[in-house]
Design goal:
Two copies of one chain form a homodimer.
Chain A lengths: L9 H6 L7 E4 L3 E5 L9 E5 L11 H21 L5 E7 L12 E5 L15 H14 L3
Antiparallel strand pairs in A: 1-2, 2-3, 3-5, 4-5
Chain lengths: 141, 141
């Protein structure tokens, strides 16, 4: 179904440490970091370390690890951003609007209905750092 | 975080067989069926059989089973509806817009950007049945 994994995609480069990311959580199988073009304050991305382009490529280990990380980070996002809920969305394939060809789950506080349009502007780095700090403080260890 | 599970919610009633649903897939841990108020043609819901209100309540078994079913059913939805991709979204808690208090993942062909607004009208049952038939035919056994 999916194309060969593109080693040059931006999330692969983040995982290799070639470009920076504002990380909020990391474990053996997953990484969570601030979306630099947030559609809402507190917008975090959860990715597997597995080289998976879409959900169809995910191993069981990576799939479960992503769900666990969404639970952990999602609760922190919701709490840190003082929202009464948390939403996720996820896209697979060019016809879905997926822009980076490495599987990722968008995690946002509250509802998806009041999001800004997709990836229109870079957030101020200091604002992202402040949000990340609040989220990290709320992650249960 | 979440409220006690509401045994009277509509998905609990579907799981108990008290009200009908147009099912496209079922296994030991999950059920997938047509959303009767589709935001797009081919809109399917994947739910765990576990009594989980939100993602925070999901067991590892249920979480992995949901991911596996989304992969299987999502590919069928995408193929059946002739879309070049598949998207999912998922809401947790009243402030997220979650309307049924049983964990569910929305699975849609293509992009989320061309969805109709949330749950505005019931689809024609024969149209849903026709879509379900196409999706079921595309599920890999």
């Amino acid at each position: 179904m999916t194309e060969p994994y593109d080693e040059a995609n931006i999330f692969a480069r983040i995982l290799r440490g070639e470009i920076p990311a504002i990380k909020v959580y990391e474990d053996e199988h997953t990484l969570a970091f601030m979306d630099i073009m947030p559609q809402k304050d507190g917008h975090v991305l959860v990715i597997p370390k597995q080289k998976a382009t879409t959900i169809y490529d995910l191993s069981d280990t990576a799939a479960l690890a992503c769900m666990r990380t969404v639970k952990k980070v999602g609760l922190a996002v919701q709490t840190a951003m003082q929202a009464n809920g948390m939403s996720t969305f996820q896209q697979n394939g060019k016809g879905s609007g997926q822009t980076v060809p490495h599987f990722h789950i968008h995690v946002l506080p509250g509802s998806l209905r009041d999001m800004k349009g997709h990836a229109v502007e870079m957030a101020d780095r200091n604002v992202l750092l402040a949000h990340a700090e609040r989220i990290i403080a709320c992650i249960e260890r």
